[in-house]
Amino acid sequence: MRKISQHTTKEYQPMVLYLDDLQKIVDVFGDHGIKYCLNSEKFSYDNLQEIVENEQKIKSLAIKSTDPYVSIEFNSHSASVRVINDDLISTGIFHKIDSIVKKRVRFLFSKLVIGILYTVFYSLSLACTLLRVGNYISDLFLVMGTSIFIFGGHTNLNKRVIIHSFKSDNKSNFFKRKRDELTLLLIGSVITFLVTIMIRRLVK
Predict the structure, then answer these.
(1) Least confident span in 22-31, 47-56, 125-134, 146-155
(2) Pairing of strands 15-17, 69-74
(3) What mean pLDDT is reported for the chain?
(4) What is the 3-state secondary structure (H, E, C) of 104-157?
(5) pLDDT (mean) for 153-163
(6) Largest CA distance in the chain
(7) What is the rounded CA–CA span in Å between residue 103 and residue 112?
(8) Rounded Cα–Cα distance for residues 11 and 158 (Å)
(9) Cα separations (Å) of 172 from 3, 62, 85, 93, 107?
């Protein structure tokens, strides 16, 4: 009788990864003396430093080893960790990598949350209209919901995984990184709100 090895796979919610996270992941392989390779969209690398030197923007990254077989894949649509065997080394590697990756999950900016926020603001707008609380308040909720929907759909907030080639302690805050997009969002919201008011007055 022989035991059949069971593979373990885990997929993750949207996340943001930084250079120090990637370094911790490859260090797991190094600590066990396991050879690994890193693959981006177009090239294969032997170490993390080569990626930093050659890739200005990391759109996707796969880290793999063959003995034991471990596959870690990050791209804009998915994030997963997989090991084929269930021996002590493979299981230990899986749990170490999982503990690193799951800390970077960003539930707040997932498509689900954006959809919920849009639904909430749209429902508030509809409720104000039905209860005749005030057209301006109804319009405001509608504009806020629409703005969130547009912002979530046209920025990298709806990407599954974002990989930065700098360390987490060097990251700028959200408002600095999104300054231009937030400015356009604010201008668009104000214009939409004013146009909505003008249309209501013309209809009257």
Answers:
(1) 146-155
(2) unpaired
(3) 76
(4) HECHHHCHHHHHHHHHHHHHHHHHHHHHCCCHHHHHHHHHHHHHHHHHHHHCHH
(5) 58
(6) 83
(7) 19
(8) 16
(9) 50, 26, 40, 31, 20
- Which one has a higher pLDDT value, 1 or 86? 86
Distance CA 59, CA 192 (A): 34
Neighbours of 184 (CB within 10 A): 13
178 Cβ neighbours under 8 A, 6+ residues apart: 155
Q: What are phi and psi of 9, to 5 degrees?
A: -135, 140
Q: Is 100 exposed, middle or buried (0-12, 13-18, 19+ CB in 10 A)?
A: buried
Look at residues 174, 163, 170, 177 and name the one whose alpha carbon lies nearest to residue 52: 163
Closest CA to 67 of 87, 41, 95, 45: 87
Q: Return the pLDDT at 100.
A: 94
Q: What share of the chain is helix, strand, coil (3-state, %, to 5)?
A: 55, 15, 25
Token reading at 142: 């509608």
